[in-house]
Amino acid sequence: MRSQYLRSVTSDSPLPQNYFPADGRLLNSKLANISSLVLSLNAAVEDLGSADLPKLDDQFDFYTEVERFEINLIKSALRITGGSQVKAAKLLKLNATTLNAKLKLFKLTTK
Fold this sequence. Notes:
Blueprint: H1 24-50, H2 62-80, H3 85-92, H4 96-105
């Protein structure tokens, strides 16, 4: 960092908006990229948790597992599309009304 930009900062003195004149855009861009990467990593970790295969024993219920799989697919599609039901339906190759009905059936609506 160039010494011309250094100054002491206390909790009482916020940084001016143009504190890093030339490097500010680059810094903001890098922070946005890191933020996007963190979101992607969080989504990948969530997806890993949903990939657990159930144990095939006396407690296994096919319909419960199919429902769990559908819910995870829907949640992933909504996360990828930023919550857009229309885009998630297209991604899942469903009619938007079908996705909406499944959201209500599985009680995944936010309202």
